[in-house]
Amino acid sequence: MTDRLGELTAAGVAVWLDDLSRVRLSSGNLDQLRREKHLVGVTTNPTIFAKALSDAGEYNWQLRDLATRGVTVDEAVRMLTTYDVRWACDVMRPAYDASGGIDGRVSIEVDPRLAYQTEQTVAEAKALWWLVDRPNLFIKIPATEAGLPAITAALAEGISVNVTLIFGLERYSQVMEAFLAGLEQAKANGHDLSTIASVASFFVSRVDTEVDKRLDKLGAAPEIAALKGKAAIANARLAYERYCEVFSSARWQALADAGAHPQRPLWASTSTKNPDYRDVVYVEELIAPGTVNTMPEPVITAFADHGEVRGDTVTDAYADARQVFDGLASVGIDFDDVVDTLEREGVAKFEASWLELLDGVRKSLEAAAQGSGQPNQAARESAEAAAQAGGNA
Questions:
Q1: What span, in angstroms and rounded, lies between the C-alpha atoms of 121 and 127?
Q2: What CATH number has the domain bearing residue 240?
Q3: Could you give the angle at which helices 46-55 and 380-390 cross, rounded to 10 degrees?
Q4: Are 206 and 168 in contact (CB under 8 A)?
């Protein structure tokens, strides 16, 4: 049988899972994916946790203990989610060790309500780093304007960071600048740069969803129809071009000489939202050395079944990517507005999911305190609402 995920790994793409739950951990599923499907990392978000806490009886004992202690809902959420992330870090530790600290990473996000608050984001990043207490942790910080200095500050403290919610090229350039500044400060602070890692999560499918929606409003002319489903891949390819430029600079080389690892581009939101598109298109068309692709398990399974590895599908396609953007501009698509819209909506969706998660845990704590025996049952409606609010990443 063809080992398609093995071929993808050999082509330089790290395979990560965009999901986590205690059922996945306790059943051994996550470890099985690591051993059998070349999985070397895990990402999470508020919607994922809301779903996890609604479906699994494994949380009941901890909810009862938390209810007995009378903790706040916010503290309960952090105790529940960090427990899972700490466990996942331990499961992924072999991948971390085998890669010299590059992979084997598990991400946990700062409270999305803090997306526009720099100091609070840094403070929570420190708290989560301390609470999970695993070297293969990533703290997810959104790439908002307020998030950029928080990224630098966290890295300067020796905290490994997954920068999330990146949609546009200019913001991506700012993220890389924040990364370089953070490592330079970390070096000045005496940190071992070889222990600090980072990825920049560049969202993919949501770009096509937004651009295609705008194209549909312009009519069905051939030149418009030809642009559908093209923006996301073109955007990511041009992001990789910028990555190559920055990480071949003299400034970067000075950090590399001190032991630093580059901030890898991570392709996020790689499940297709349009059923007319090939289900693994955002994997097949974004194969390049030194990248990460975080996928829901159905996408991993689909790629293992019928994905095609055609070598590097990014670096020879920069000219085609620019033609896509020329075409979008020619029909009146304001891509800067697309990016701004997606960032605002991304923060709002994760915040809505977080609020639903809090509501679900609150109901579960109340049920546990009343001795109902099924604290998670009370949270399922809230988790469904969170999925609707957060959407499929």
A1: 10
A2: 3.20.20.70
A3: 160
A4: no
Joined together, the tokens standing for residue 369 give 């305190």
Q: Which pairing describes strands 105-109 and 137-142: parallel, antiparallel, or unpaired? A: parallel
Whether 140 is catalytic is yes
289-to-163, 310, 311, 313, 315 alpha-carbon distances in Å: 19, 13, 10, 10, 10
Do 77 and 85 touch, CB atoms closer than 8 A?
A: no
Q: % helix / strand / coil in the chain, to the nearest 5?
A: 60, 10, 30
Alpha-carbon Rg for the chain in angstroms: 21
Distance CA 180, CA 298 (A): 35
Q: pLDDT tens-digit profile of 291-305?
A: 999 999 999 999 999
Q: Is residue 227 part of a domain?
A: no
Q: In DSSP terms, which residues pair with 25 in a beta bridge?
A: none
Residue 133 belongs to a domain: yes
Of these residues, 37, 51, 140, 230, which one is catalytic? 140
6, two tokens: 């093995």
Structural domain contains residue 11 = yes
> Sorting pLDDT into bands at 50, 70 and 90, what band is 285?
very high
User: Alpha helices, DSSP H only, in the chain?
Assistant: 4-10, 22-26, 29-36, 46-55, 60-69, 73-91, 93-98, 118-132, 147-156, 169-188, 205-216, 222-225, 231-246, 250-257, 281-284, 297-306, 318-330, 335-369, 380-390
Per DSSP, the chain holds a count of helices (H) and strands (E) of 19, 8
Domain count, the chain: 1
Range of the domain at 80: 4-205+232-312+344-372
Kind of pairing between the strands at 137-142 and 264-268: unpaired
The residue length of the chain stands at: 393
Least-confidence region, from 34-43, 60-69, 306-315, 370-379: 370-379
Q: What is the DSSP letter of 162?
A: E
Residue 377 falls within a domain, yes or no?
Answer: no
**pTM (two decimals):** 0.93
Q: Which residues pair with 292 in a beta bridge?
A: 14, 266
